[in-house]
């Protein structure tokens, strides 16, 4: 096993990796264990590569130990082999025992009891450690128990719109008509097909669809079925199809349970809750609750469900025309979720799509506001929400409206989605 480790270590050190920088600022020189978690294929590995390239530029190539625990060469590896990995590295570079080394462990959750090893080497070696994983529940649970006080975690999502433009080599110049035309065209594609890096770099539409379906299969079989020993595969697939086909939708789990039962599926409410929790743990779906002062009231009301990338809707949606209103809302949620962990929707007489308590921020999303009644409804819902939470302004995200409405002492900023997504990102 040591010889295999030595080969993997040296082969990686000699490998030249070209990367497109992401909009993440990750610490390399920190005494904490850095944890990157997120859905599969969101770009966690390439964030490691980006950190590694910076170290190589400093002349620290031999100080780097990178291992991808999903490498088929490591099938059968167990907890006891971790010590052999460290021994193999120091047999290659005995002089590095007196220097700081940098350990990058990719998809480390594949090895049982990994947290014990990471905790031990963090406490005993002069090493900076970065780990990645594709299960929020696994990493958060283990970090809370075994790595307490030793780690800082970062969530990794598919590409933001700003990153998407960078991947497609589109300049962000909001004062250039030429640049704006490219940005608006790119947004329509991004809204429909999402931001998984591999999809953005692939031009063939058939291959794009095949890749996205492979992602779903990988998440379902590796991150859910194998990990949680799911027995009712048909129910899980039905739930996935429903959620991916209906992003940004209010869901009553009682109604969903009754609907599935009427279709002939054998299930309990507990099973439905469990399967949704599995999808949430794998970073494929997210929920927002209604904003209420009572937890009981929050639980009693329907949840609004969002998906981690619009590309999953692209492969499940069977309609002839995309529902841009829902797709816009899902993109807005993902943009907010990158910045805030606590997101709600507000509803009294009227509904507001998003409320961020930490900023008293209220956001509504409507694709087309040409109809005056539609616009008035959205404005009034924001005013009701602003009056309730004590905010003086709200935001209405649209396709192309860019103006300010003042009403009843409140300001509502109408902004095109492309501008709202890129605010502060212009060169």
TrEMBL record:
Tree of life domain: Bacteria
Alphabetical list of Pfam families matching this protein: AAA_14 (PF13173), DUF4143 (PF13635)
The AAA domain, residue ranges: 31-165
All copies of domain DUF4143, residue ranges: 222-358
InterPro entries: AAA_14, DUF4143, P-loop_NTPase
Record-linked SUPFAM superfamilies: P-loop containing nucleoside triphosphate hydrolases
Protein name as it appears in the record: Uncharacterized protein
Organism: Nitratiruptor tergarcus DSM 16512
Organism lineage string: Bacteria, Pseudomonadati, Campylobacterota, Epsilonproteobacteria, Nautiliales
């Amino acid at each position: 096993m040591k010889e295999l480790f030595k080969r993997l270590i040296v082969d990686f050190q000699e490998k030249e990796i070209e990367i497109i920088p992401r909009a993440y600022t990750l610490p390399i020189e920190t005494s904490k264990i850095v944890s990157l978690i997120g859905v599969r294929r969101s770009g966690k590995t390439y964030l490691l590569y980006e950190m590694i390239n910076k170290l190589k530029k400093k002349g620290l190539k031999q100080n780097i130990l990178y291992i991808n625990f999903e490498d088929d060469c490591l099938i059968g590896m167990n907890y006891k082999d971790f010590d052999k990995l460290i021994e193999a590295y120091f047999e290659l570079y005995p002089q590095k025992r007196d220097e700081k080394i940098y350990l990058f462990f990719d998809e480390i959750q594949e090895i049982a009891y990994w947290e014990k090893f990471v905790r031990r080497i963090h406490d005993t070696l002069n090493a900076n450690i970065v780990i990645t994983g594709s299960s929020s529940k696994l990493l958060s649970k283990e970090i809370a128990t075994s790595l307490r006080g030793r780690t800082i975690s970062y969530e990794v999502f598919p590409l933001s719109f700003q990153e998407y433009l960078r991947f497609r080599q589109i300049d962000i110049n909001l004062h250039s008509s030429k640049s704006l035309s490219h940005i608006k065209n790119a947004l329509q594609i991004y809204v429909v097909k999402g931001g998984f890096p591999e999809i953005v770099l692939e031009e063939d539409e058939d291959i794009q669809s095949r890749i996205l379906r492979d992602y779903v299969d990988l998440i379902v079989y590796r991150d859910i079925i194998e990990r949680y020993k799911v027995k009712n595969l048909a129910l899980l697939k039905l739930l996935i199809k429903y959620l991916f086909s209906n992003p940004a939708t209010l869901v009553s789990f009682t109604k969903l349970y009754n609907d599935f039962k009427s279709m002939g599926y054998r299930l309990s409410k507990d099973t439905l809750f469990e399967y949704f929790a599995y999808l949430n743990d794998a970073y494929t779906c997210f929920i927002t609750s209604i904003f209420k002062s009572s937890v009981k009231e929050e639980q009693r009301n329907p949840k609004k469900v969002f998906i981690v990338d619009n590309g999953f809707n692209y492969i499940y949606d069977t309609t002839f025309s995309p529902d841009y209103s829902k797709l816009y809302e899902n993109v807005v949620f993902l943009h907010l979720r990158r910045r805030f962990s606590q997101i709600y929707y507000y509803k009294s007489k009227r509904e507001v799509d998003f409320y961020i308590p930490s900023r008293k921020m209220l956001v509504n999303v409507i694709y087309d506001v040409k109809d005056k009644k539609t616009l008035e409804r959205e404005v009034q819902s924001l005013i009701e929400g602003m009056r309730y939470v004590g905010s003086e302004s709200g935001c209405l995200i649209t396709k192309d409206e860019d103006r300010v409405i003042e009403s009843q002492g409140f300001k509502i900023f109408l902004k095109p989605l492309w501008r709202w997504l890129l605010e502060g990102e212009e060169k």
